[in-house]
Write a structure and sequence with these properties.
Layout: H1 3-7, H2 11-26, H3 34-45, E1 50-52, E2 55-58, E3 62-63, E4 69-75, E5 85-92, E6 99-104, E7 112-118, E8 124-132, E9 137-146
Parallel strand pairs: 1-9, 3-9
Antiparallel strand pairs: 2-4, 4-7, 5-6, 5-8, 8-9
């Protein structure tokens, strides 16, 4: 037998490799934790302190269905060329990834307000952090209860 023939994949070998890869995909996905959320916030702020205030996180305290949770973040800012919000980031502590969303703004936005819907896999804390053009960081947080979580394993 030639060397090239022994190196060719067989159908059985391909199927066995595919089954092994599938077994890796079926393993429970990683979940964010309060520690990974704190690390994601530190990465976003560059280890600067995010002070409480100026940010208002509007999210229901009790969520019946975690598949579509309304979220609104507004920041007190004049939104002038010299003083504006550059980024609003939203973090969570129990979904698969700690960073939910990043919204990039300019002074031309007129006001520092964003809204969206998110999926939540469990009752948890949500944190919104705003980066201002002067380099400061401001935050707000909310604890919420989810009665029917999204992202549930079957």
């Amino acid at each position: 037998m030639r060397e090239t023939e022994t190196m060719r994949p067989t159908r059985r070998g391909v199927l066995a490799a595919g089954a092994g890869a599938l077994a890796l995909l079926v393993v429970r996905p990683a979940r964010a934790t309060p520690e990974t959320m704190a690390a994601a916030i530190r990465e976003f702020t560059g280890w600067s302190e995010a002070r409480k205030g100026r940010v208002a996180l509007d999210i229901p305290a009790l969520v019946e269905n975690g598949n579509s949770v309304p979220l609104k973040v507004s920041v007190e800012s004049p939104m002038t060329p010299d003083d504006f919000v550059t980024t609003i980031a939203v973090f969570n502590e129990r979904n698969p990834q700690p960073n939910v969303a990043n919204f990039h703004l300019t002074a031309r936005a007129g006001r520092a307000e964003v809204s969206t819907r998110i999926r939540l896999g469990d009752s948890q804390k949500i944190v919104a952090v705003a980066r201002l053009s002067d380099g400061s960081f401001w935050s707000d947080e909310a604890e919420l209860v989810v009665t029917l979580p999204a992202c549930v394993e079957s």
